[in-house]
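tmp note - Alpha/beta hydrolase
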Amino acid sequence: MNEIEGFLDRPDGARLAWRKVEGAGPTVVWLGGFKSDMTGTKAEALADWAKARGRASVRFDYFGHGASTGEFAEGTITRWRADTLAVLDAIAPGPVVLVGSSMGGWIACLATLAAPERVTAMVLVAPAPDFTEKLMGPEIPPEGRAALAADGVWMRPSEYGEPYPITQALLDDGARWSILGDQPIPIEVPVRILQGGEDPDVPWRHALELAHALKSDDVVFTLVKDGDHRLSRPQDIARLIAAVEEVA
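out:
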């Protein structure tokens, strides 16, 4: 089964790059993390699985990510949520299983809340709901706060490459989409969560808080004690594929 690719034109002129494997549904849709793209190890592994099993899959790059157009610094949770819903409508019609990694786990929840009739299940890897407010915000150093106040942007150092921009607009917008609070999250589909115990970016207790908050009773939380944030080792990929097969 071959993978086709193209661009989805958005009303403001932006173009979202996507790749699709035709096959049996529900369509497995990959939602990547913050500053990542659709050519990562987990995304490629899911596409390969879809080709081998005759299953439908879609992966894409958010605005300002990977092969899509736009400046990363102009992206927000609102924007990336809208990108996801547009891809679901145009490229992955019908029922879908959302597979979200890190920020993609938050986006998967937001997309499910927006289109509950479309999503049959979710598989989340190190999900980072509310990360702008609960994970990133508290770790911004004084010099970062000063840069945000003066220029509206802070170049955040990264263990995965060059520093990248964090904008005040991203932080303010992220607070609008908070889902972790006093009330249960009204998501009732089956959910599988894979979380590394040695994850330096998303503490396992944060992912567990999401698991507890989901209204669904069919939630399985798997703690990979020696796992990191990416969970891209062969054994981690095997767990991911198994989780997708279970709910898809």
